[in-house]
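I have been asked to look over a protein record a colleague put together. Alongside the sequence sits a line of tokens, each denoting a local backbone shape. I have pasted the whole thing underneath without changing anything:
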Amino acid sequence: MKINNNPLQLYKLLPGDNCRQCYLPSCMAFAAAVIAGEKRLTACPRLDPAVLARLEAEFCPRRSLADEQADRIGELRQQVAGLDFAALASRLGAVLRGESLVISCLGKDFVIDPAGRLSSECHVNPWVQLPLLRYLLVCQGAAERGEWLPMAELAQGAAVAPLFAKRCELPLRQLADRFGEDFFELLSMFRAKVEGEPDGDRVALLRPLPRVPFRLAYQPPEEGLDSTLRITFDRSAEQNATPEMLHFLASGMAEMWEKILQSLCHPR
């Protein structure tokens, strides 16, 4: 019987005694961890050797998200390695430093060497690496138009819009609700231009990539109405980025800012 990446099918082949020698609370938890690629079958000391040999021959665990991101970063590095950085710098809004490109992301400088490797004074996360490397490949250097559009109205953005609202706009709205002015002060630390009065409507203009501005508009709750937060993009984003890049950047920012606020501030 092939387990077909199904934890229940794998569980049926395990001892089922929940011995915890794999350091998980149950055999079912172990089966789920193996399917997810977090545990190896050999971590079960009571698995019959004959069953183990058969399973290892036919079973291919799911790749973790980290593994998939690492592979994608490797692919992008190979593509970037063939680019003429000197010819690209102006189009990207970047600076050439020796043979490397320096690109500003939220006010922080990221250096991309000719082999596609990234370095920075701050931590380099996948949510930064993937869009930055992709930016070198897709940015056409289109000038800003001053026409701000939601994700759903960008070319190819409609398919991404529902997930963008759930994983980007909603978490950021919740942060603005919980932390109030601390949230907007944090945005300012990342070189956002923030307008509006405390406890009133706020607008923040951010540049996660030089040619890809984000406009974040927040309206606090009032008179029984929920708060709102909407992110819009200049029309030029259609030539300088992809909807997937925009989603990846915004979700990464939301996760990063939540960690910072939880460690430094108290909700209002």
In short: The chain has ten helices and nine strands. Residues 243-264 form the longest helix (22 residues). The CA atoms of residues 145 and 235 lie 6 Å apart.
